[in-house]
Amino acid sequence: MKTIYKYPLNIVDKQVINLPISAEFLHAGLDPVGKPCLWFIVENTNATMDYIIRIIGTGNPLDKDIEWFDHLGSVTMPPDVWHIFLAYI
């Protein structure tokens, strides 16, 4: 059964999230309490896979490996703007 799930993020350089295979990205933003999150449509019964999340603030240098990541979106948490990237492991 397809369901929309929210995946809270920490503002750290790298973290791993576990998503069902074929998860469909919907949105990057802040939830109602101001926590940065990603939302995906997922199939609950699918096997899961680990993904690396990179969060990079405006003005910070980019590592060479960022070319392997997809930009999912950006969130504004004054005074900072954080840019969220994802790649599979």
Layout: helices, strands, pairs:
Blueprint lengths: L1 E7 L5 E7 L3 E7 L5 E8 L4 E10 L12 E8 L2 E9 L1
Antiparallel strand pairs: 1-4, 2-5, 3-4, 5-7, 6-7
Properties at a glance:
0% helix; three-stranded antiparallel beta sheet; 63% strand; single chain; 7 strands; four-stranded antiparallel beta sheet; mainly beta; 89 residues
| Chain-averaged pLDDT | 96
Order of helices and strands: EEEEEEE
How many strands?
A: 7
Measured as a percent range, the helix fraction is under 10%
Structural class: mainly beta
| Measured distance between first and last alpha carbons | 25 Å
Widest sheet: strand order? 2-5-7-6
- Total helices: the number is 0
Q: Unreliable stretches, pLDDT < 50, 5 or more residues?
A: none
CA gyration radius, whole angstroms: 13 Å
Please provide a written account of the structure.
The protein is globular and about 40 Å long. It has strands at residues 2-8, 14-20, 24-30, 36-43, 48-57, 70-77, 80-88. The protein is mainly β. The mean pLDDT is 96. It has no helices and seven strands. A hairpin with a 2-residue loop joins β6 and β7.
What's the short version?
The chain is an all-beta fold. The protein is 0% helix and 63% strand. The chain starts with a strand and ends with a strand.
